[in-house]
Structures are given as structure tokens and as C-alpha cells.
Amino acid sequence: MRRAEIVTAFLLGIFSVYLMWKSGDPPAWNPSIPRFSNIGFDETGTPGSGFWPFWLGFIMLICTIWIGINWVLKKSPQSVSEEPFLDDFGKKMLLTVGGGLIGFLVFIHILGFYGAIFVFMIYYMKFLGRHSWVLTLIISTVLPVICFFFFDIAMRIVLPKGYLEPLFIPLYDIFL
Amino acid sequence: MEVLGHLIEGIMVALEPINLGLAIIGVIIGLFVGAMPGLGSVNGVAILLPFTFVIQGFTGGATSPMIFLASIYYGAMYGGAISSITLGIPGASTAVATTFDGRPLALQGKAHVALMTAAIASFIGATISNVLFTGFAPVLASVALNFGNPEIFALMLLAFATFAGLGGDDFPKTIFSICFGLALSAVGFDIISGEPRLIFFDIQGFSHGIRFLVLAIGIYGIGEMLWTINTSRYGSSMSKVEVNFASITHALSRFREAWRGTIIGSFLGFFVGILPAAGATPGSLMAYGVTKMTSKNPEKFGKGSINGVAAPEAANNAASTGAMLPMMTLGIPGSPTTAVLLAGMVIWGLQPGPLLFTNQPDFVWPLIGSFYISNVVAVCVNIAFIPVFLWMLRMPFTILSPLIFVLSLVGTYAAYMDMFDVWLMVLIGIGGFFMRILDYPVAPAVLAIVLGPIAEPTLRQTLLQYETFTIFFTRPIAGPITVIAIILILLPGLQFLYRKFKGA
To answer: What is the per-residue pLDDT across B55-105, written as a single tens digit (0 to 9) for each?
Structure first.
């Protein structure tokens, strides 16, 4: 945990600097304007477009340095913690659940939301939850059906369907 | 007295069978729309607006359709709390603050207490707000108009200060979290100069900005969920609640601990609701902050404080009535939902504005009467459904957690119709999980991304108008608010000096 604390503070510090750098971007239609010319006040006395994010980034940078100082002085609970940042269960969980979520997102682009929900529920309930096939299949099938009737039919919010789009056309003919 | 007579007449009209029936249907629809992550009152009201023409054709007047829409609005305000408490995903943007303490209560096996507190606090918030609305509508509308840019910015500063100065969280991490949320809210186009800014890594998806629900659902739906799985090891993370009469009456008796949050939420929520461009989400977050700030034990907030549930719930209901005030008396909507209601009123041939109360009393008073009636209907329906919501918590965690993930993804897409947002939401969620382990408070970031789009323009417009920072101290309303905010921010430092002085 102690190492994770300082590494995170360092990464957030880099993000803060990137934020400050990005705030000073000249407008796309006039790249000749020098960087950081928009972080102060313009000739009318109005703060420029980069004023707000630049100074927020600056305060964020100060905070990360402060967190670093607390780490050196061992003042925060994380800087004296002997516990691991992620134990074996945590690493495995992040890989299976976090990875499952990324897989879910990828499947949405291929099978659409409803197909992806079906696959994700089977993966999660059967392989992570070790539920019976019957229960797994019932929930994995019923959930996309409820979602379809709630979102596509009742709320008229059309969710992406990927390559399964043709299968839904007859349903639209019936219900819409 | 005249007002009371009008109000009683109005309530009688709202109690006519057709209007009462519409109120019940509206509340139930609102309850479900509000409970669905990603969808809030604005979706329910907007989608069912066309349906009101059918009602108008049937009943002949504008009163019944308006009662129907107002009931959906109320129902959604109640419904938002349900998924915030039981699932830990904010059901609507207005219920984000309810998640802060509602979820820890559910994890401790006190979901019934949280749900009951939310329902009663909502009822009291809405009722207080209705009384204020009925008695003081024209006066309050003129007060709200006196709130210029310096005052609104000072109020925003106070909201941040309530989160930063107190509560026992690590100070630099809290400030970082606030600035992080504010910076994310600045992504996209600068609304004053029109320049695109902070388009990270030149990815075009950032040009429409980082939407508030993407951050809120990411942090609470994904990040907190991963954290819960990690700490509970799929075990008995959600303590089971026995659903019986005794547990419900016990929950009812616990409400007396929540009166402070309820009162603060009711008044503050109503007032923030009135302010143009504010509305129920900032109202509920500010009520949470102020209740925490004035509490004797602020360290309990975020860990399952009953006041932490009561304050935002009372506030979001109070604000939803408050937001109707500028909409009806000035024709300025205070929130997206009231903007849709305003559109409805114009379509039905009404002219919102100062003359509405004198020209259309047969519309205004039944509508105000219906606020009271639909509020009673909403609290009854909500309490009746509590056992159903608690039943959801009895599901094994390996079924409940993927359901929450699915609802988070579908809800995010449904809110913005953009796959980029869904990806971003999941990535923010995974990042939020790491932040959670390292004890970075996430609630201030959520507050900041809501208030950022109000705070930045008001600051810049003030500086454009007055060309000096001292204006925040010299205006009669803004001055005291700014000074209080600065004292609150400096409070940890002052406490440190006090202890040192005392020690010496």
C-alpha cells in the first residue's frame, strides 16, 4: 500500500501537469496564438478559456506534492500501511470482473447490447458465481428481454444491436 | 385566508377521481423511471408529454395533463433513492448524494431504515416546500431574481467548502478530488469563448464534455461494486434484511434521528431549487454538505448516517417544487424537467409568467393542490413497495453484482446514446476502484462535476462585469457567504494552530 500511495500521487501529479499543458492549447482555428496565452485575463478583463482548468490543474499539482510530503513524513494511513495494495484475490477479481466488463463492452459492438448482456450474464453467473445452468440460462434470457421491452419499446430508446439487428426487425413490426 | 380558500378549492379539484387516478399512475411510472439508473424525471416527463394530449382531449382542460406530469416528476424524485440505496447506483442524478450514506446503510443490513428515511424525508421536504410555494411564491421569485453571478458563485464556493473543510477525510486528497471533478466538468467546449478545450489525447469523444452521470455511475456502479467484491470476497456483503412488520415499524421509529437533515434539506433544497440554473441535483448535494458540516459527528457521514440519507432526499423533493416556482411565476425553468413542463404549458395554451396566478387561477390552484395530493400518493406507494425493493437485496451477490453492472452500462447508454460514454464510464469506474482503496474521497468529485458548469461561468461573468475579485466580499448577500466559505476551507489549518497554541 505504501508504494502504491506514492506511485498514484506521482501519476496524478503527471496528470495535473498534462491538464495545465492542455489548458493552454491555442484554439484549433488559430494555432499561431502562443500556448498559455488563454490562461490569464484578456484585453477586456475576462478570464480566457484556459484560466479555470489551468489553475485547477495547478492546485491539483500542489495537492499531489502535499500527498507526497505526507508520504515522506509518514503522516497518512496509507503511507504507513503494511498491507498489500491488491492481494491475490483482488488481482484475480480485477482480472476476471474488470476483464469481463471490458469483454462486455467489446461484445456490445459485435452482438449489440442484448446479445452482450446474454453472454456476460452466462460468463458471470456460471463461471464466476457457479450457479446452475438452469438458473443461469433463465436469468440470462429474461434480463435482455425485459431490457428490450423497457428501453426499445416503452421508452423508445434504441440500444445498439450489432450484427443481430435483422433479428429485431420482426419484433419492431409487431410492437411498434 | 384567500390563499387558503383557493388552496382548498384546488385540492378538491385534484381529488376528483380522474385527477387522483392520473396522479397514482403518474407516481408509479415516475417511481420506476426514477429507480432505473440513467433515467430521471426529465426522461419520464419528456417521453410522456405527447400522451398528455390524449388526456387533454379526454378531460378538456390543461389541469389534468399537468397533474399527470407533475406526479411523474414527484414519483421520479422518490424513485431515485431506491436504486441509490439498494443497488448503490444513483437512480437519477438527483439521488447521487443519497448513495453516499444510503449504500453503507444497506451494506450494514439497514436498507429498510434507509428506504423508510428516504420516503419520509422526501414527504416532509416536499410538504414544507409546498407550503412555502403556496404562501410566498411571488415574493420568493423576486428574491431569486436578485441572485446575480457573484451570489451564485459564492454559494458554489460554500458548497465546496462544506465538503473540504470538515469531515475528517485527508485534506489534500479532498481538495484534489474537488479540483479533479471541476476540471472534468470543463472538458469540451468553453461556453463563453466557444473554444474547444481539454480534448484529451485529441480523442473526439471528449469534445461533448464528460457527462455527469458517466462519472457518477462509473464511480458508484462500477468502482464501488469492484471495491465491495474485493472486500467482501463475494460473501455476505449485503446483509440480509428480514421483511416483516416489526422491521418496518423499527425503521419508522429510527426516523426521529433524521429530523435535522430533513429540515436542513427541506429549506435549503427549496431555495436552491428556486435559483435559475440550479435545481434538485445541486440542491441535494449542498444539503448533504451543510448537514454534514453542522453535524456533531461529521465523521459518521459516508459511513451510514441516517441524516446523510434524509438531507439529500428532503432536498431533492423540496427542490423539485422549488424549481416550479420560477417556471410558473417568471417563465424561467430552474431544471431540465421544468423546462419540459414549461413547454407543455405553452402547448396547452397557458402563458407562464407573473400574470399566470391572476389570469389562470382555475389552472394554478388545482395544480398546487395536486402537488400536495401527489406527494401523499407518492409516499404511500413508495412505502408499499419497500418490501419489493428489499427483496432485491436477498439475491445472491453473484447474481446481484452482474445485474448492477448491466444496469450501469445500459443506463449510461440510455442517458446519452453514446458508446464512448459507456467505455469512459467503465474506465472511470476501474480508476475509481483504485482511488477507493487509497482513500481518495470520491463524493467531492461528483459534487464538483455537477457544480462546475455553474461555478465557472458565474465566476468568469462576474469578473467580466465587475473586473475585480473584491466584489465577492462587498456585495451584501455574496460577502457573508464568501467569508463563511473561506473560513470553512481554512478550518483544518485553524484547528491545527489552535491545538498547537493550546499545547504550548
So the answer is: 887 877 788 888 898 899 888 888 888 888 888 888 777 888 899 999 889
**3-class secondary structure, A143:** helix
**Which residues in chain A (42-71) have CB-CB distances under 8 A to chain B?**
44-53, 56-57, 59-60, 63-64, 66-67, 70
Query: Which of A8, A46, A49 lies nearest to residue B434, judging by beta carbons?
Result: A8
CA of A80 to nearest chain B CA: how many angstroms apart?
12
Locus of grid cell 499561431: A32
Per-residue pLDDT tens digits for B35-61: 877 677 887 888 788 778 778 878 777
Examine the domain organization and report whether A22 and A48 are in the same domain.
yes
B197/A41 CB distance under 8 A = no
Structural domain ending residue among the three candidates A45, A60, A80: A80
User: Residue A4: which of A59, A77, A99 has the closest Cα?
Assistant: A77
User: Do A29 and A74 fall within a single domain?
Assistant: yes
Tell me which chain A residues have a C-beta less than 8 angstroms from the C-beta of B396: 129, 131
B89-107 exposure pattern, b = at least 16 Cβ within 10 A, e = fewer: bbbbbbbbbbbbbbbbbbb
Q: Do A38 and B419 touch (CB under 8 A)?
A: no
Rounded to an integer, the average pLDDT of B409-422 is 91
- Mean per-residue pLDDT over chain B, rounded: 84
DSSP assignment, residue B335? Answer: S
**Contacts of residue B173 in chain A, CB cutoff 8 Å?**
63, 67
Residue A163's domain comprises: 88-175
